[in-house]
Amino acid sequence: MTNNIGLAARARKLVIGTASTLLALRKGRLSLILLASDASGPTKKNIHDKARHYQVDVLEHYSAGELSHATGRHDIKVIGVTDQGFANLLMQPKRK
Fold first, then answer.
1. CA triplet 59, 11, 61: central angle to 5 degrees?
2. Within 10 Å of residue 13's Cβ, how many Cβ atoms?
3. Is residue 76 part of a domain?
4. Which alpha helices (H) appear in 1-96, and where do they start and end?
5. What local confidence, expressed as pLDDT, does residue 65 receive?
6. Residue-wise pLDDT tens digits, 32-68
7. Quick one: 6 exposed, middle or buried, by C-beta within 10 A (0-12, 13-18, 19+)?
8. Which residues of 18-55 are buried (b: 16+ CB within 10 A; e: fewer)?
9. What is the mean pLDDT of the chain?
10. N or C terminus of the chain: which is more exposed, having fewer CB within 10 Å?
11. Measured on CA atoms in the order 66, 71, 77, 78, is the torsion positive or negative?
12. pLDDT interval class at 95 (50, 70, 90)
């Protein structure tokens, strides 16, 4: 499933990083937020609170390592998905 995150990154349909994601969220540009399952407590609380306010779903299915590997960046905890099609693809249940 991280292949789909990489595909979205190459298509430039992601906002990477906490600050950038929160800015895009405030501007109404996000369809989904991917939050690392091993992100810090304050980061998780902040993202969940803001996402609830702006009515955007948050997925915590991936670790920071998986998100970092998928995007080709280092130590990524928060990713915003700007495209509804990719958001739908990422929200599908994982296949074995």
1. 15
2. 17
3. yes
4. 2-10, 18-26, 41-54, 64-71, 84-91
5. 95
6. 999 999 999 999 999 999 999 999 999 999 999 999 9
7. middle
8. beebbebbeeeebbbbbbbeebeeeebebbeebbeeee
9. 93
10. C
11. negative
12. low
Residue-level pLDDT at 94: 64
> Which token pair is 89?
């693809």
- Domain hosting 79: range is 2-91
- 96 in a structural domain: no
Check residue 53 and report its DSSP letter.
Answer: H
Q: Is 83 helix (H, G, I), strand (E, B) or coil?
A: coil
The model carries a pTM of 0.92
What CATH number is associated with residue 15? 3.30.1330.30
The residue whose two tokens read 């929200």 is: 91
